[in-house]
Design a protein that fits this description.
This protein has 11 helices and 9 strands. With 310 residues, the chain is of the alpha/beta class. Strand 3, helix 4 and strand 4 form a beta-alpha-beta unit.
Length: 310
C-alpha cells in the first residue's frame, strides 16, 4: 500500500498535497464500504485506538468512534472531565498510562496549541490531532475539502470563502492550509474584530463585506461564532452579527450565481445561517458529516499502515 509521508497527523501544515490526494483516494474506497449493508471491514482488527478528549466534543468524537468501529479496531474512550487530570495528572502521565495498556494510536483533542507535537516527541504511538486550541483541526479541513471536491471535481483555482469567527477558529487555519495545497484561492470574511491581524500574510485575501465575498466565491464555509472562546466583546450582539454576516435565502437569491454553502457545525441556526439555508439544496452540511467518517477511516488506516512498515 502507499504510505503517508508522516507517522502522525498533527496538522495540515505538516503534510503534503500528495498525502492529501492519498487520503482522498483511500476515503473514496471507504465511502463505498459505509454505504453498503455490512458497513465493517476487518482492516484494523489488531489495532487499539484511544480517543483522548480534554475538551468537549460531540460530532468529532462520534465520527472518530464510528470510523474506528467500521475498521474493527478496539476502541478506548477517555474524557478528562472524569479522569485523574482533575487531580493534577499531567498530559504525558495520562497518555503514558494509556500506552501502558498497549494502545497503538491516540486520537486527541486538547485546549493547548502544540499539545500533539509535544506528545509525538515523547511517545511511540501514532498521534491524530482532533483539534488543539485555536490552532489546527486537520481532519475537519480534510473532510471539508473532500466534500468540496465531490461537488466541484477539483479545487484548482476555485474560489473558497471562509466566513465568520476566524480569530478563534482552528477550522479556519487548517482549511486555509488545505485549500492552498489543493490550488484553491481563499478569502476570509468577517467583522474586523474577528479577523486576525496579518492574516493576509498567509497568502489569502481578507474582506469585511459579506455580499461582495459571496458574489466572488464558488463556495462559502460558514464558521460558528465561538462565544465560549471569547473573553472580550467582539461585536455588539448576535442579532447585529447575523444582520451583517448571516446568510439567508434572500441573500443567496440575490447573487448572480448559485454557490455551495458549508458549515463545520454545530450550527447556531439564525446566526451564521438560517434553517432554510442549512436545509436547502445549496447546503452540503450533511455530506460533510457523512464524509467525515470516510476521511477519518482513511487517516486511521493509512497511519496504521505506516506503523506496521517501520
Amino acid at each position: 500500500m502507499s504510505l503517508l509521508s508522516t507517522k502522525h497527523l498533527l496538522g495540515i501544515k505538516d503534510i503534503s498535497s500528495q498525502d492529501i490526494d492519498l487520503i482522498f483516494k483511500t476515503a473514496d474506497n471507504f465511502k463505498q464500504v459505509i454505504n453498503r449493508p455490512i458497513k465493517k471491514v476487518p482492516t484494523l482488527r489488531d489495532v487499539t485506538i484511544a480517543n483522548v478528549f480534554f475538551e468537549n466534543s460531540t460530532r468529532t468524537k462520534i465520527s472518530f468512534e464510528l470510523a474506528e468501529k467500521r475498521l474493527s479496531a478496539d476502541v478506548v474512550n477517555f474524557s478528562s472531565s472524569s479522569s485523574s487530570v482533575k487531580k493534577g495528572e499531567t498530559l504525558i502521565d495520562t497518555v503514558n498510562n494509556i500506552l501502558a495498556m498497549k494502545v497503538d494510536m491516540v486520537v486527541m483533542r486538547h485546549p493547548a496549541p502544540g499539545a500533539h507535537q509535544f506528545l509525538a516527541r515523547h511517545i511511540d504511538a501514532n498521534i491524530v490531532n482532533a483539534g488543539d486550541g485555536t490552532h489546527e483541526h486537520p481532519t475537519q479541513a480534510l473532510l471539508d475539502a473532500y466534500s468540496l471536491r465531490e461537488k466541484l471535481t477539483n479545487l484548482k483555482d476555485k474560489k473558497i470563502a471562509i466566513v465568520g469567527d476566524i480569530l478563534h477558529s482552528r477550522v479556519a487555519l487548517s482549511n486555509i492550509y488545505c485549500l492552498q495545497k489543493l490550488g484553491a484561492k481563499v478569502r476570509v470574511c468577517g467583522p474586523p474584530t474577528l479577523l486576525p491581524k496579518h492574516i493576509e500574510s498567509l497568502g489569502i485575501e481578507a474582506s469585511y463585506n459579506l455580499k461582495e465575498t459571496l458574489e466572488w466565491c464558488d463556495a462559502a464555509n460558514m464558521l460558528r461564532i465561538q462565544l465560549e472562546r471569547q473573553e472580550d466583546k467582539y461585536f455588539p450582539s448576535l442579532r447585529e452579527y447575523s444582520l451583517q454576516y448571516g446568510v439567508t435565502m434572500d441573500v443567496l437569491n440575490k447573487l448572480s450565481k448559485k454557490i455551495i454553502l458549508m458549515h463545520p457545525g454545530p450550527i447556531n441556526r439564525g446566526v451564521e445561517i438560517t434553517s432554510e439555508v442549512a436545509d436547502s439544496n445549496q447546503s452540503i452540511i450533511l455530506n460533510q458529516v457523512e464524509n467525515g467518517v470516510a476521511i477519518r477511516m482513511a487517516i486511521l488506516y493509512l497511519l496504521a499502515g505506516s506503523s506496521s512498515e517501520e
